Amino acid sequence: MRKILILFGLGFLLCSNAAYSYSTESAMYYNEGLDYYQNGEYSRALESFKSAVAKEPGFVDAYYNMGAIYEYLKSYQSAIACFSKINQLEPNDAETILKLSELYNKVGNYEKALFFVNKITPENQFYAKAQALKQQYNTAFQKAKAKQALSSVNKANELNKSVINKFSGPTGVAINSQGVLFVASYTDNSIYRVMPNGQSYLFSKSPLLGGPIGLAFDSNDNLYVANYDKNNILKINKSGQVYIFMDKITNPYYLLIKGNNMYITEQGNNTVVRYKLY
Which CATH superfamily is domain 164-276 in? Predict the structure, then answer.
């Protein structure tokens, strides 16, 4: 059974095992990751945990913490990858098996969710919880199949889909008046520009960026950034100059600009802030 540290303000549990059985260097990165996490610096925490597993590929607790952070940030596929690695290392760990079932349920892959929840046997202490989850997944699976059967041939054409692979933890997106796409890259604290032809370029890697998530353009093509880890809103003009536009916004998440009003979801305070731009 893992020892865990309950960190108030987030809806998950983070492992805090002292990594005495691992190398000194990997343990240093691991403990550094916990410190970053406790300070709300999630992107830096992720980088430290990644460094820990790079030094010690079997570092289960580091994978667990990465998965927990990714789940909190709603990067469910990244969370699945972390917990899948734990499942490879500890195939009989029931908590990991249940977590994988819950994550697959969140991404709508009910077959995988049922596959994992069915691995919990009657003698396991989590069997009752697994049975309740199984019923939930079955209901969702049946509803999804019924909806698919009733839907018209409005399915997205795979030939129309293209994928751009150049981001580390992509979060918010916004398009300026010229039709250029901008993407916030949470993990490496960067903003990328994607041209209509699909070519992507680094637009900003200012030291002021700290966990960028929401993006929005005003009518003058100024880009606003919800700077999650630094609790502020940044403004980036067309030349790429970066300013702190608004501070004391606790964990800003999404941005929306409508007319002369900006709306900010303030996750840390469970509020929505409205700000008059002009």
Answer: YVTN repeat-like/Quinoprotein amine dehydrogenase (2.130.10.10)
